[in-house]
């Protein structure tokens, strides 16, 4: 009896010790142990799904199995297989990759903060053209959000490239990465209270292809109307670039099949290939599509597929039609010169004026292309190289004006009066550009992704911010987490601990209110009414369809 009592007391003591150790969290599948810093906690490599390996390749994800003991979560998990081409200075590529990659990174405030009440959760889906990136690493580091804004931030790995988006019309259905994202949101709902989060305050946010993911989730039957999120934040969503569908996917997958040496109907052959073979064939197929006559498809090759099940329609079409929950507030925005990175990457040699004319007509069709040539005339001193002008046109058409059009529709159209939407423009040329990217076209342009070091405000471990940049990063973290905390980026509450912050009110978008856009810039942010109205009115009149 005495020995049994002693054992019981030891068990109780051990349980009490675990409960007192804030580096340990008990989830629905088991306990994890992370790292505790002075003002936040981080748990890296937290499994949220069963490994999609072996016969689980090209299968819908399953919840992670339970484990015994305490799982050590102090090192980033492998990224999903990829041939990552992010510049080294961005610190955005995974160190290692593996098909066993469905993990997440979890940043939380300290337990003493969480003891005062549950914190909001912001779930981030990284960009990278649906072929690159991961949920860990140095770029999308949520420590500032956790430490200074009492917000939980989660970065999620999801399947990429052919291992996610391959489609054969039969037993390989694509969209596995979107299903991974849905499963990760279900995981958050089950576990939020276990790590101090509020399951009723979950913001889905993403950049570039991660923003496309967010817009897909908004209207997907798998995710919408299920209470999986309370807010959506989309950074640099290229609304005008189409996703592939059953008519456009076969051109890509047939090339993949040839490079891999497997028929798309031969599942055994496809399963026999290792992930390196698949990524190599995926990239070879992508390179072969650079001459795709549907020019916009070449800018985003491996994408989710509009299958009528997971992705019921193009995101732009779905949001214009009101196929989303209009009670959910939305934030969206762009950088000032989004497309410079892509145009100069696609056209490595100067583009003379006559090729500029041909390119616009090829992309937009003869009527809209001719109108665009008149709207964006070639300056006489730049006739020998029009890439900067072509990038300006692409930025307006693909990003700035398409985002404004969606915003206007949400606030004035089919769901008029039911949506609060905030629109922003990032307009700061970073001081550390040579450390950030080797793309010299971005040394004098605010390119795609230029906002990311400031959205998370955790990049100073790699570069030296100016004082103005430090203020800019603190402001962006504050507006983002204000939104996560309350559904309103201008709601400056007690959760923020940055001092001396410029608390500029950011009104929601409305035509009657002058169509205000928050411009994030140095030395101070400012509101810009009617931002780019002349050009966006032009594109609204032309339309944002997919003529090619």
What's a concise summary of this model?
It is built from 19 helices and 14 strands. With 548 residues, it is α/β, with parallel strands linked by helices.
Keyword list:
eleven-stranded mixed sheet, Rossmann fold, 19 helices, globular, three-stranded mixed sheet, alpha/beta
Give an overview in words:
The chain is an alpha/beta fold and 548 residues long. It has 2 domains: 23-248 and 306-327, 3-Layer(aba) Sandwich (Rossmann fold); 329-346 and 395-548, 3-Layer(aba) Sandwich (Rossmann fold). It is 36% helix and 13% strand. The protein contains 19 helices and 14 strands. The protein has helices at 2-20, 111-114, 143-149, 162-165, 176-191, 209-219, 249-260, 267-272, 275-288, 295-299, 315-320, 340-346, 353-364, 366-375, 387-412, 433-436, 452-456, 467-486, 533-542, and strands spanning 24-26, 31-33, 35-36, 41-47, 70-72, 103-108, 119-125, 152-156, 197-207, 231-235, 330-335, 421-426, 516-520, 526-529. Strands 3-4-6-8-7-9-10-11-12-13-14 form an 11-stranded mixed β-sheet, sandwiched between helices. α6 (209-219) links the parallel β9 and β10. The protein is globular. The protein starts with a helix and ends in a 6-residue tail after the last helix.
SSE class: alpha/beta
What is the count of structural domains? 2
What is the total tally of β strands?
Answer: 14
Main sheet makeup = 11 strands, mixed
> In the CATH classification, which architecture of the largest domain applies?
3-Layer(aba) Sandwich
Mean pLDDT rating: 93
What's the name of the CATH homologous superfamily of the largest domain? Alpha/Beta hydrolase fold, catalytic domain
What form results from the Cα inertia axes?
globular
Amino- and carboxy-terminal Cα gap: 81 Å
Uncertain residue ranges: 7-18
Number of helices: 19
Strand line-up in the sheet with most strands = 3-4-6-8-7-9-10-11-12-13-14
Report the helical percentage.
Answer: 25-40%
CATH class of the largest domain: Alpha Beta
Beta fraction: 5-15%
CATH third-level topology of the largest domain:
Rossmann fold
> Radius of gyration, rounded?
24 Å
